[in-house]
């Protein structure tokens, strides 16, 4: 109790936003929706004609306004009510959580899967309404458009007996992998997390400065022999076993991972937060651990500078992650109008053309496959379909992503290199997803153990230094 | 009725600021440092810090970085400040400007440029993390060392040196017995302005790709994993170091003022 009172007090002191939020409610019948999203994670409009997207039915997408402004207009046209979005951004899941605990109030936020699970265990979230899940309503773009593959992932991931699909609606998803320069690193070398400990590339690779991403790589290396064994791969409850192995936080696993990460620390160029993308392009590093969406961005940027980069989701295991929209109890406060507006916002973002807008702007992959609409698949074809006049026939391949779109014609005829590049990063093939694992929220004990392990890895190792001297 | 305005009231804005943003947060930090998750008073966090060879290692590593940075800054800044102070006034100001000018340019921008220069020189930055950290820190903090030294030296009356020379002191003796003791207050304030920030300035380490934590990064990492207790402990440890060194330096400078400088005046 004491703790909570203090943090609230500190929040009141330090956060001017509290005062601001208090002043905003003066106007007439206007619903105010406070949205917290990742930085640069929503289309801001103002496209020029050269970047316009053309769909197969001839329509062209070239928005002027931001998505938020378009939502406000759309909401008024559809429901006849005014809504005003107060949009703010955060940099990490932990930052969002800290903001909320010290008193910032949001109605709708977009944390990652493990943070959604943490918020669920702390009863911070408002469940989505039955109307939101009703497929019969045309405006319910989310349930009608979400990829059945992602919907299944949401249904199956649960904590304390509740499925997360009750509290969260998907936004973007992807994998954790390795961006590499094919001139320096072979596809085979980049196909495993062991690349990070490979002394051949000493001081030329970066890893993310994030305990969870680093832990995933470490725990994959630790379990490498087990999880690549045919007997393990062929067992009936493979998915559950794999999940348990890679989400283990027992002392033995954590200690072993600490040793692996310490040797990775000695071998890599650095633990980076944001410099990795630029350093790949300039050639300071030849491979780095990267989320798929950032990988697309990096590969795009490098292409403009005439450098060819590739992406690999390691063969032993990749981390399937996603960000989803959740409603916060403290913000919604059981106000039905507000809840309805929040759900409408999610539905608006899930309209196929808006999903395409976001994908084109931020480089990440939307959870929306489009349902009856062809627009998302159209967009993938528009991006990656090989032009027969430019690409010789022997370099053309059929790239199958039917698992995501849940339709048999989701096969892209593309150039062979795209199976290692942007297309592969945005929509990994089904066999990659079969080996993917969600990194769940760890319990308190496991979390403490992992954080202590991380501090140990990052602190100055007196003992190793002393042994090095002698 | 006329409103009576007293000069004391001018201090009110800062007093409010002080209470809201210095004293209250400090109390919160102290509260978190000495309690565990359940609100009980506990010294466990402190003991755990000093029991782990890793966190103590980082404390020592930070101290080594800070001391090395300070010494190098002092070695570079002292002759510079001396020359600046002893050239004729006009060009001295212009020269000083040259040394302080870098502070007008955004730090991140400067360190990014430094990073590129170091990469050109070394090839791969990751090979010399300690060296690069020191270079970055010295680059960042040098103006903070030059300014107080310059201020102390520019006030130094040439007649003291002339008098010493007249009385037969060699140039070495003039420096060691007159100039150096008189500039001690400048040295002390320069050292305080460099030593302690250098223990926590982890931006430099991030920018030059040194992946080892110093005290500042440790605080950041604890707070971002909601471990407010351990984060506060590190802050308190730094606070104690800062407090002790300020106390020592104050005693030293005050002694100087009252003793030697007072007599000379």
SSE topology sketch:
The complex is a heterodimer of chains A (470) and B (265).
Chain A: H1 2-14, H2 16-23, E1 30-38, E2 53-54, E3 60-61, H3 67-79, E4 82-90, H4 93-101, E5 108-109, H5 113-121, E6 125-126, H6 141-145, H7 148-156, E7 158-159, E8 162-163, E9 168-174, E10 176-180, E11 205-208, H8 211-222, H9 224-227, H10 230-234, H11 238-246, H12 251-267, E12 270-272, H13 276-282, E13 287-291, H14 292-304, E14 310-312, E15 318-319, E16 321-328, H15 329-332, H16 336-349, H17 352-362, E17 365-366, H18 375-384, E18 396-400, H19 402-405, E19 411-415, H20 422-426, H21 430-434, E20 436-437, H22 444-458, H23 462-469
Parallel strand pairs in A: 1-4, 1-5, 11-12, 11-13, 15-20
Antiparallel strand pairs in A: 2-3, 5-16, 6-16, 7-8, 9-16, 9-17, 10-13, 10-14, 18-19
Chain B: H1 12-33, H2 44-51, H3 53-86, H4 89-100, H5 107-122, H6 129-154, H7 158-166, H8 171-182, H9 184-200, H10 202-207, H11 215-224, H12 228-264
Describe this structure in words.
- The complex is a heterodimer of chains A (470) and B (265).
- Chain A folds into two domains: 219 residues, Periplasmic binding protein-like II (D-Maltodextrin-Binding Protein, domain 2, 3-Layer(aba) Sandwich), CATH 3.40.190.10; 176 residues, Periplasmic binding protein-like II (D-Maltodextrin-Binding Protein, domain 2, 3-Layer(aba) Sandwich).
- Helices cover 44% and strands 17% of the residues of chain A.
- Chain A is built from 23 helices and 20 strands.
- In chain A, the strands form six sheets. In chain A, strands 1, 4, 5, 6, 9, 16 and 17 form a seven-stranded mixed sheet that branches. A five-stranded mixed sheet of chain A has the order 12-11-13-10-14, with helices on both faces.
- In chain A, a hairpin with a 5-residue loop joins strand 2 and strand 3.
- Chain A is globular.
- Chain A starts with a helix and ends with a helix.
- The N terminus of chain A is likely disordered.
- Chain B is an all-alpha fold.
- Chain B has a single domain, classed as MetI-like fold (Orthogonal Bundle), CATH 1.10.3720.10.
- Chain B is built from twelve helices and no strands.
- At the A-B interface, helix 1, helix 4, strand 12, helix 22 and helix 23 of A face helix 1, helix 3 and helix 11 of B.
């Amino acid at each position: 109790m004491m703790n909570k009172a203090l943090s609230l007090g500190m929040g009141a002191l330090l956060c001017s936003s509290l005062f601001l939020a208090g002043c905003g409610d003066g106007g007439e019948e206007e619903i105010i929706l406070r949205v917290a999203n990742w930085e640069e994670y929503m289309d801001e409009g103002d496209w020029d004609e050269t970047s316009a997207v053309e769909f197969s039915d001839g329509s062209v997408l070239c928005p002027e306004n931001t998505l938020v402004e378009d939502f406000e207009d759309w909401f008024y046209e559809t429901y006849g009510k005014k809504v005003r979005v107060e949009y703010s951004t955060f940099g990490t899941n932990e930052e969002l959580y800290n903001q909320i605990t010290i008193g910032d109030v949001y109605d709708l936020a977009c944390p990652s899967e493990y943070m959604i699970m943490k918020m669920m265990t702390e009863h911070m979230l408002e469940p989505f309404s039955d109307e939101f899940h009703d497929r019969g309503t045309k405006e319910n773009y989310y349930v009608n458009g979400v990829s059945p593959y992602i919907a299944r992932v949401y249904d199956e991931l649960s904590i304390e007996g509740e499925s997360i699909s009750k509290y969260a609606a998907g936004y973007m998803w992807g994998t954790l992998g390795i961006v590499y320069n094919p001139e320096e690193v072979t596809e085979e070398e980049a196909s495993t997390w062991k690349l990070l400990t490979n002394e051949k590339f000493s001081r030329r690779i970066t890893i993310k400065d994030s305990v969870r991403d680093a832990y995933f790589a470490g725990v994959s290396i630790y379990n490498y022999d087990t999880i690549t064994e045919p007997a393990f791969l062929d067992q009936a409850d493979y998915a559950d076993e794999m999940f348990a192995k890679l989400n283990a936080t027992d002392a033995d696993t954590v200690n072993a991972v600490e040793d692996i990460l310490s040797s990775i620390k000695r071998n890599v160029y650095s633990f980076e937060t944001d410099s990795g993308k630029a350093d790949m392009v300039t050639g300071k590093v030849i491979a780095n651990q990267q989320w798929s969406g950032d990988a697309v961005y990096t590969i795009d940027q490098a292409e403009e500078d005439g450098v060819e980069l590739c992406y690999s989701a390691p063969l032993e295991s990749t981390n399937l992650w996603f960000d989803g929209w959740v409603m916060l109890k403290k913000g919604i406060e059981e106000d039905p109008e507000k809840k309805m507006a929040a759900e409408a916002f999610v539905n608006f973002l899930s309209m196929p053309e808006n999903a395409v807008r976001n994908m084109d702007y931020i480089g990440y992959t939307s959870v929306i496959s489009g349902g009856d609409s062809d627009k998302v698949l159209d967009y993938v074809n528009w991006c990656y379909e090989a032009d027969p006049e430019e690409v010789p026939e022997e370099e053309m391949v059929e790239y199958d992503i039917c698992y995501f779109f849940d339709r048999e014609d989701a096969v892209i005829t593309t150039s062979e290199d795209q199976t290692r590049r942007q297309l592969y990063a945005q929509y990994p093939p089904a066999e990659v997803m079969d080996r993917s694992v969600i990194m769940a929220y760890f319990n308190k004990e496991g979390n403490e153990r992992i954080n202590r392990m991380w501090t140990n890895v990052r602190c100055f190792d007196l003992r190793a230094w002393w042994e090095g001297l002698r | 009725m006329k409103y009576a305005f007293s000069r004391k009231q001018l201090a009110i804005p800062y007093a409010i600021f002080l209470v809201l943003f210095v004293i209250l947060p400090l109390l919160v930090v102290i509260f978190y440092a000495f309690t565990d998750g359940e609100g009980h008073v506990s010294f466990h966090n402190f003991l755990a810090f000093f029991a782990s060879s890793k966190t103590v290692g980082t404390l020592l590593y930070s101290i080594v970085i800070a001391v090395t940075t300070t010494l190098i800054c002092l070695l570079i800044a002292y002759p510079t400040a001396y020359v600046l102070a002893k050239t004729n006034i006009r060009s001295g100001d212009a020269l000083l400007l040259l040394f302080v000018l870098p502070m007008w340019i955004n730090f991140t921008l400067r360190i990014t440029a430094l990073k590129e220069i170091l990469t050109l020189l070394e090839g791969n930055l990751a090979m010399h993390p300690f060296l690069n950290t020191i270079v970055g820190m010295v680059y960042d903090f040098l103006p903070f060392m030059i300014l107080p030294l310059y201020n102390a030296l520019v006030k130094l009356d040439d007649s003291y040196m002339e008098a010493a020379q007249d009385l037969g002191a060699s140039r070495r003796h003039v420096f060691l017995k007159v100039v150096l003791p008189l500039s001690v207050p400048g040295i002390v304030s320069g050292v305080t302005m460099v030593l302690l920030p250098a223990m926590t300035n982890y931006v430099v380490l991030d920018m030059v790709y040194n992946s080892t934590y110093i005290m500042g990064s440790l605080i950041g990492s604890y707070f971002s994993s909601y471990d407010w207790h351990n984060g506060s402990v590190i802050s308190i440890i730094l606070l104690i170091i800062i407090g002790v060194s300020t106390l020592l330096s104050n005693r030293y400078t005050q002694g100087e003022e009252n003793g030697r400088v007072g007599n000379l005046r």
